[in-house]
Amino acid sequence: MAKLQQFFKDTSAILFAEFQRSRSVQHTTLKGRDREVFIESFLKKSFPSKFVIGTGEILDAKDNVSGQADIIIYDEYMPVFDYSSTKHFLSEGVFAHIEIKSDLTGDEVTKALDITASIKKLEREIKPIMHTGEINNKVFSCLFAYSGQTKETFKKHVLEYYKNESSIDNKIDMIAVLNKYIALKNVNTEGQLELLFFETASDTLMIFFAILYNAMYKNWMGQPDLNKYLGDLKFTSY
């Protein structure tokens, strides 16, 4: 077994043990935040410092604001606006977004997909400084859960949620259930959304990380036009 494969298996065991221990926390909000911190800490240790790992809302240049996102992976060269109670991240600087859930019950799936929908609707106008491949004008969004429904139940729930959404770009990109499976969106030959499930077992975290990494790196190093966020601010000389 490759050394990194063993590393991810061991890290998965640690994450799941921390998840189990957090069940003794009675306060629901604190419990949820603890489980976000487990993944947040793993990402901070795994990605270089140029990636800011935070939580807050995402703002676009037309003043559209997303729901409160559990984890935002952000470019360190982009400004972050701190309101004390929350933070605003500029949509152009967001590499990826992750919702964290303890258990993928029907209600929790809906909540996560609602947040993703609010993020996918945001506009992004990226001026490429240098990039490889195609620039993605939608934030890469995914869901990570510690436990979840069967594949059949989960698939039915997600497809029902998206039955009136025609654009594949506005749908969640990846869902991972620790030590169980990963689901990726796909468009079939008839142009309909499919969820492709992969039995990933103890390799789930490793595959989740690899897909997330590739989604972040395939895009751009870009620069937002701050004037657009400031109402096309113009300066008058005297």
Number of helices, counting only DSSP H or I runs of 4 residues or more: 6
**Biggest sheet architecture:** 9 strands, mixed
Distance between the termini: 70 Å
Q: Unreliable segments (pLDDT under 50, ≥5 consecutive)?
A: none
Q: State which percent range the strand residues make up.
A: 25-35%
> If you compute it from the alpha carbons, what radius of gyration comes out, rounded to the nearest whole angstrom?
18 Å
Biggest sheet, strands in spatial order?
A: 3-4-1-2-5-7-8-9-10
Give the SSE string. HHEEEEEHEEHEEEHEH
Give the proportion of residues in helices.
25-40%
Principal-axes geometry comes out as globular
Q: What's the rounded overall pLDDT mean?
A: 83
